[in-house]
Amino acid sequence: MGELLSGAQILCRVLVEEGVDTIWGYPGGAIMPFYHALPDVPEIRHILVRHEQAAAHAADGYARATGRIGVCVATSGPGATNLVTGLATAQMDSSPVVAITGQVPRAMLGRDAFQETDVVGITLPITKHSCLVADVTELADRMREAIAIAREGRPGPVLVDVPKDVQNQKTEYREPDPRLTPGASPGSPEALADPVSQAARLIAAAERPLLMVGHGVILSGAYDAVRQLAEKTGMPVITTLLGISALPASHPLHLGMPGMHGEVHVNRAIQRADVIVGIGLRFDDRVTGNTKGFAPRAKIVHVDLDASEIGKNVPVALALVGDARSVTERLVTAVAPRGCEAWLAEILGWARPPADSYRGDLSPDAIVAGIHAAAHDRCTIVTDVGQHQMWVAKLYPYGRPNTHITSGGLGTMGFAVPAAMGVKLARPREDVWAISGDGGFQMNMQEIATMVQERIPVKLAVFNNGYLGMVRQWQQFFHGKRYSATPIWSPDYVKLAAAYGIPGWRVDSASELEPVLARASVAEGPVLVEFVIEQEANVFPMIPPGATLSEPIEAEPAVGVRE
Amino acid sequence: MAYALSLSVDQDLLALGRAVGELRRRNLKVSAITLGPGADAGQARLTVIVDADEGTVEMAMRKLLKVSGVRGATREPQ
Fold first, then answer.
1. Which of A150, A161, A373, B3 could disulfide-pair with A96, CB 3.0 to 4.6 Å?
2. Hey, what domains does chain B have and what are their CATH numbers?
3. CB–CB of A388/A394 below 8 Å?
C-alpha cells in the first residue's frame, strides 16, 4: 500500500520528483488546496508575483536560463487567463513552462460557476499540451506526462488544470514507473547519415557559404559544435535574435544579426550566398523579409529538430532533421577543412556605420557600452520588445552563450521585468539586467514589489523616450508621421523606485553614465536606472514590412504613407 | 485539389479539438469531416476532406503529427 496523499500533495510530490525547486504563482479560491499543501514542501520555494502574467514570464525566464522546466501556478478564471500571454510567449520561443491551474469543482464544471473558465480550451492553440485531470488516481501520471512533453524534443509550454475537489481527494501515491516513457511522440525524426554527407559536399563546393544559427543552438547547447563548424570551414556566421550569444560577438567569423533590423552587410551576405546552412532557426518573417526575394542564389541546408519547420517558410534544398547539437557535431566530422577568406573580406567590405540619427548626448550605443563595462561581461541581459531590444541585440558584445534572453517570436512587451526575476534566481552569482522601454516597463513594473519582498536583485534599466518608440518609428516611416496613440507619459521613475524602497537614478547625459552604472552595479538589491534618450531616435537599418532584404532603409525617409 | 486526411487520434475530445484546431488556424477549406472507431483500443479515426494545394496539405500534415494526441496521419488525393 502506497502513501495516501491528496491531489494537492501529489502535485507537490511530482514537482519535487522532477527536481523543481522554484515556482511562481498567485493563490486564489480554486487553487487553495495546493497552497495549503505547499508549506509542507521545503524543497520548493514559491515566489508570490503581483500578476499571474509575471508568473508565466518568470517561469519562462527561469527555464531559458537553466534549461530545466519553469513552473507557474494560478487559480481558475482570471488567474488562469492572466497566464495566457506568458504561455503564448513560451510557445513561440520553445520554452518548457509548466502551468498548474486550479479549476472549479467537477460538479460545477460547465455551469458558469464563479471564476470558472475553460482554460484548457483557451490555451489549446498556445500550448504543446494541456489537460484537465478529473481523476485523482491519474493525477501523478498526467503531471509527469505533461512535464515530459514540455521538456522533450522541441520544448514548449504545457498546462495542467486541476479541479479543486480533485486537489482535495486522497489516493494512494504511486512512484513513477521506470518502464514508462511518458509523452514519447511516435516517429520522432532522426537525422540520417546520407544528408550529413550531402551537406558536407554542398559546403565544400560552395563559393559563398553562410552559417545562420538560431535559438535551437542555445536550446541544445550546440555552441562548441557551431564554433568548430565555422572555424573548420571558415563560414561566416549570422545569429538570429534568439541565437545571439551562441557565438561570441568578438569572434572574427561572427557577422551579426540578420533581418528587419540586421546590418546591411549581413543581409547582403544572405542575398549573395550560394549555400546557407541554417541551424536551429525557423526562417521567420522578421529574418527573411519577403520570402519571395530571400537568398535568391542560395541552396538552403536546414538543420532543425522539428520536421514541421522544414520548408515552412523558405524552400529547402536539404533537410537534416534532428537535435542541433548532434547534427552539427556530425557535420563537423563530415566537412572537409576549407577557408572563406575572400568571401568574408567581401562581406566585411560592405559594412558601413549605421546612419547617425541620434541628436542627443545619451545615445543607445553609449548606454549599452556603459552597462557592458559596468558588468564586466559577467551578466545576462533580458530585454523587452521594441527599439531598445534591437539596439541591445545589435550593440551589446555578448561573450558567453545564452546570456541574451528576450521575447522573439511573440514579441511580448512587458516580458523583461518578470522574466529577469526568473533568470536572476537561476543565476544568482551574476548580474541580471532587465532592459525595457518606457512602454514595456510600465506593463509589468508592479513586479518590483515581488523583487523587494523576495529579495531578487534584478537591475532594471528603462530607455525612456516618451514614445512607444518602435510603433512611432513605423508611423514616422510609413504613416506620414502621424503619431497616433504613441506618446506615452511615465511616472517619475526615481520616485517610483523610492516608493518601492530601492535605489533609483535618472541619467540625462553621457557624463552621468559611468558613475551611475558603477553605483547600480555594486548595489545589493534591485535597482532602477532611467535613461532619458532622444525622443525620435530610430533603429537603422530597417527592412520595410513586405520588402526583401535587398531593400533596406538606411536613413530617415521622406514623410509619406505606405499601404 | 481535394485531399482526404486520415488521422489516428486519441479517443478524447481534447485530442480531437487540438487536431481540428490545427486545421482551423490554417483556415483550410473543409468539405467533410467524420469520426469513427480507430484500429486500436482508445484510438479514433478522424477523416477530413480538405481543398488545398499539396504544399499546404504537406505543412498541415507535419504540424498535425506534432499535435499531442495525434498518433498518425496519412493523406490521399481525391
1. A150
2. 2-77 (3.30.70.260)
3. no
CA A446 to chain B, closest CA, distance in angstroms equals 34
Q: pLDDT at position A352, please?
A: 83
Strands B43-51 and B29-37: antiparallel
Name the minimum distance, in Å, from the CA of A315 to any CA of chain B.
Answer: 11
Question: Do A337 and A311 form a contact (C-beta atoms < 8 A)?
Answer: no
Indicate the pLDDT class of residue A561, thresholds 50, 70 and 90: low
| Residue range A479-504, pLDDT digits in tens | 999 999 999 999 999 999 999 999 99
CA distance B54 to B48: 15
**Burial letters A461-498, b for 16+ CB under 10 A, else e:** bbbbbbbbbbbbbbbbbbbeeeeeebebebeebeebbe
pLDDT in tens, A85-135: 999 999 999 999 999 999 999 999 988 999 999 999 999 999 999 999 999
Please write the tens of the pLDDT for every residue from A72-88. 999 999 999 999 999 99
What is the grid cell recorded at A2?
502506497
Domains observed in chain A = 4-172 (3.40.50.970), 193-350 (3.40.50.1220), 364-532 (3.40.50.970)
The catalytic position among A43, A114, A172, A554 is A114
Contact B62 A308 (CB under 8 A): yes
Q: Which three cell numbers stand for residue A529?
A: 536606472
Q: Are A60 and A70 in contact (CB under 8 A)?
A: yes
In chain B, residues with a C-beta closer than 8 Å to the C-beta of A307 are 62, 65
Inter-chain residue contact A308 with B59, CB threshold 8 Å: yes
Residue A215, classed as helix, strand or coil, is helix
User: Choosing among B18, B27, B66, B74, which should be mutated to test the A contact, i.e. which has the most A CBs within 10 A?
Assistant: B66
**Interchain CB contact of A128 with B (< 8 Å):** yes
Q: Does A143 touch chain B (CB under 8 A)?
A: no
**Residues in A 433-492 with any Cβ partner in B closer than 8 A:** none
Q: Which residues pair with A256 in a beta bridge?
A: A238
